Amino acid sequence: MKDKSNLSFLLKNVSLTLAIPLAVYICMHIFSKMTAGVGLLAYTVDFKNLARTWVYSFSFSLAVALNFFNGRFDFSMGAQVLFGTIIGGNLGKLLSQATGLNIGISIIVCAVAIGLLSGYAIGALFTRMRILPMVYGLGIAMVLECICFASFNSNGLILFGIPGAELLSELWFIGLVFLAVILLMSYICNYTSFGYEWRAIQGNQKIASNSGINIFRNCIICYLLAGGLAGVAGVFDAAYAGTILPELGLSTISAVTGNLFALFLGIFIGQWSNMVVGIFCSSLSVQLITLGLAKSGLSSSVQTVIIYVIFIIFLIFKERYANLNITKEKKARIALARKRRAELSKA
Fold first, then answer.
1. Which residues are 244's β-sheet partners?
2. Cα–Cα distance between 16 and 271 in angstroms, integer?
3. Contact call for residues 66 and 222 (beta carbons, < 8 A)
4. 169 and 52 in contact (C-beta within 8 Å)?
5. Interior/surface letters 179-189, b for 16+ CB within 10 angstroms, e for the rest
6. What is the spatial distance between Cα 11 and Cα 302, in angstroms, rounded to a whole number?
7. Rg of the chain (C-alpha set)
8. pLDDT confidence of residue 1
9. Over 60: is that where the pLDDT of 2 sits?
């Protein structure tokens, strides 16, 4: 009986986790058929575009979530993507020329390495300065933007027309990197002491610190992992666009706000699984919507408006859903108390 109950619980959670991306795919497939005359994923290029944007959205949203869940909203994440990709990508090109290593592999390795180093430095500096995370993120974003602009003659990272860079657009390579990121982050967040401490800090930072958890070390690791994920996200974003250029004036913040939908939807879906799986499904859902709107021929500005309207509707639904659950739990407690009182009165 217990095994059947556990199996039923597992099937219920799996069904609820997959329900949103499946429903989004069906809706956007019908929408694409009606507006463009073809299915949502009718051609190989559709799969490639979806894969590249999906791995970018997943990596970026997960990087933001690592700090967000512990009360640190990091506005510098877009600048970290830019920094890791431009600095690491160009170093990867030099490494490829010196060693003969495939340029796609060398770029992603160097971008992740630079992302990890910058993330560690940003996290270590934050634990020393201890200023408001949002203010700190804005300052770091400005510094990283200036460094990127001053580096490599302000040319950014150019991948278009470079032999070997097409590896970053191959479905099998994207899938391999994606799988590695998912498995690694799932293991780190769910089966390591860091993940245990990270979840404990989510509950209450002061209690976690009093119980012996080193919250500063955990903070540095969060920034470290976020930097590595930023490197992965930036490389595939550059592969999709063909180039990535330096930006100034805190314009990189738009990358953070542009992925909030995937982040909050991932939190919602994650209640039936975990954060990594939730963001995996939410980033797929958002990119399916984006792909469907793009295939319909709508302009980018109209697409952005539609996506943000859907985001607002989702936030309203999420708030109502949370209030409904609170009401149901309250009624259940009242019913249990009345039942217990009746049993005691009979006794």
1. 157
2. 10
3. yes
4. yes
5. eebbeebbebb
6. 38
7. 22
8. 52
9. no
